Amino acid sequence: MMESLKDWMALTQLYADYARTVDSGDWNRWPDFFTEQCLYRLQPRENFERGFPLATLSFESKGMLKDRVYGIKETLFHDPYYQRHIVGAPLVSKVEDGRIHSEANYVVIRTKLNQLSSVFNAGRYIDEIVATPEGFKFASRLAIYDSEMIPNSIIYPV
Prior knowledge:
There is one protein chain. The protein has a single domain (5-145), classed as Nuclear Transport Factor 2, Chain: A, CATH 3.10.450.50. The chain is 25% helix and 42% strand. It contains three helices and seven strands. A hairpin with a 2-residue loop joins strand 4 (91-96) and strand 5. It has helices at 5-24, 45-50, 62-75; strands spanning 34-44, 57-59, 81-87, 91-96, 99-112, 118-132, 135-145.
């Protein structure tokens, strides 16, 4: 499916760099993983499988992602927490019209100060990735989580 081992390594590096960035809280860098016209959606599996549009978070451009970053850093008040992503190897389903269609399972562990770590969110990423002069970027990232029950707030990107 992939044209070369170099492309496979770049794709795998994109997934690893993304996880490291959101785990480290480097929010200013998060939008850089996406194209200008992009889609980022955090959606329950039930809604996704039934074709329902309702999502927990839905952003349709890099500008909207930057808006979320501003909200995280400047306006949202919440208990601080750390998150740690465990992401499976991306499975490429097809490469078509310059887009890599891939999927990977993920688990996010959340640790609040002075509390035990717990599973915060688990599911799969469904991605469309394009090559840009700066390297691979997400044109679309759907984070489809398995549980219908979620914590009362999701502040940080998954």
